[in-house]
Structures are given as structure tokens and as C-alpha cells.
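Human: I hope this is not a bother. Would you mind checking the protein record under this note? Thank you for your patience.
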Amino acid sequence: MSSTDIFTRVKTLNLPFGQYVVVGSGTLEALGIRPAHDLDIAVTRELFGNLREDGSWMEEKRYEKTFLVKPGIDIIPQLSWDAYPTTTAEAIASALVIAGIPFMNLEELKRFKKALGREKDMADIILIEEYEKHHPIE
């Protein structure tokens, strides 16, 4: 990913507020926990369709879903699956908005990363918990 900050990278996409949420390491970068190496964004079905139609995104099959991708950016068609029941709409509604950009809130992000279960996700959960010790939610 480029050295441009997370806020600039998201704003450059010009996505409509209320139809997307930045997930994964994007939240971590926004809060200064660690840099994001890529940008993962979950979007509504309507926005997914609009982005797909604009023709500037490549389609890639993963996890039995079609993702839209550009270098360093993944558009996720839906969040929920068996191990992670939160829907994209629920993640958008509960987003932590920073500088006008919706990011997955930390409690949700921990559930998301636990459901993914990869080693890097477990390491991120530890970083989140350390952050929360020093930045309690009021």
C-alpha cells in the first residue's frame, strides 16, 4: 500500500457515506495502533453493484464470494458467514466515524478477527486489547 494515510486513501475512493465501512487493519491505522498494508471495505449490495458496473475494478473469487479489487484495495460484498454473523448493514450502523470515515468499531473488529482466526488476526486482537487498556471507552 502507498504511504498515503488511511483517511486520504479512503476519501480518494469517493464512496457514499452510509453505504460502506472500513474493516480490518484500516481501523487499526486510523487509531494509530499499526499501519494498514491494504484497505478492506465492506459495502452495501447497492454500492457493490454500482462499483462493479463502473468497470474500473477487477473481480476475484475468494471464500465463495466475488470481491472487487484494485492494487491494495479489496471491496467485500458481504461480511456475514457462519463464524461471523454480523451483517454489513450492522457493521455500518455501529461504525466508529473518524474524520468523516466509518471504521469498524473495536469490539466488532475483535469478533471479526477472531472469526477469521489467522495468526495475524490473533496478533491484531492482542494489539487492540493493549490499545483499549490505555484508551478506555467512556
